[in-house]
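Incident review: delayed structure delivery

Summary: a single-chain prediction request sat in the queue longer than the usual turnaround. Root cause was a stuck worker, restarted by the on-call engineer. No data loss occurred. The affected request and its eventual output are reproduced below so the record is complete for anyone auditing the incident later.

Affected input:
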Amino acid sequence: MNRRNMIKTAIGGVGTLLASTTLAADACKSFMTPAQPEGPFYPVKKIFDQDANLVRVEGRSQEAEGTKILIVGKVIDQHCRPVEGALIDLWQACHT
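Output delivered after worker restart:
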């Protein structure tokens, strides 16, 4: 490979790297959740049922009505890095 071809290849490689980095950043931004106001605000009393199971409620013999779904995902920041210790709160899950 002569010097001219080597330089062209190097410049092309840098261009490809920059383009792919920009595309990855744009892809990450397209999944960003829009800003929201503070809240929800939780009750002052401690809730006894804290197992995060929305299908079976303590003290009831039957499972909740409706279609059961499984939600899977990850919380990332604006740079597509995982957010450590993030909690996801389902505001409401009911069949009505």
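Verification: The CA atoms of residues 39 and 91 lie 10 Å apart.
Action items: add queue-age alerting; document worker restart procedure.
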